[in-house]
Amino acid sequence: MIRKIVNLKALCAGLALMLAVGAGDAIAQKRPVLRKRTTIRRNVVVAPAVYSVASGSVVRVRMNSTLSSKTANVGTPFTVTVTEPVYSTNGVVVIPTGSTLNGRVNSVTRARNEGKPGAIDASFVSVRLPNGRTRAINGSLTDLEGSTQSDNEGTATGKKMGNRKLIFIGGGGAGGAILGAAIGGGKGALIGGLLGAGGGFLGDRFTKGKEAEVKSGTEFGVYLNQSIALPRFVESGSGNQ
What we know:
Order of helices and strands: HEEEEEEEEEEEEEEEE
Number of helices: 1
Strand order of the largest sheet: 2-4-7-8-9-15
């Protein structure tokens, strides 16, 4: 009798143990699986600070190829190379020497009889820096003599142009182009003294004037009609450009 009671207690203990194990497995299955949180880091691109070049600034440039009123047409593209760095209003270099300005011909007048010289009206539409960065610009022709002055950083600044519009005109003893000015931006009279002795208007109705030929290497200025904003210039591969 005592043995039966012991066996019954053992059986009950075994059943209790089995129930406990089963319940533990059930709880373990219901327990949520904690997954390790993965943090994804993305590269954040910070826009570089930009610096302003004031309208009225003059960029000193050199012609890269010869342009002639005899062969040029409206829309003919050409390029010039910047010969001196351009500084922002607070003295930061934004357009270095060696940058390229892209120009285009707006109108052409062929040389005619009665000594009338050829003329080329051109504008400048963009700048390309040595690191590949480009910006649109609004630039016009100007000279580097009486119409400009340099500030402490070496940046040329144009004096007030008023309603003068500068163009390339034929003239001079060698027939090279010089900068002339058309009153009001049209086909007005050329400002006196620009042609100089022996150039242009000879007064003979059968004498053809000189073509405006802007030879490669000719230096002049590009007047910025609008301000532009650019980052500090940095060589390609040297960080933010």
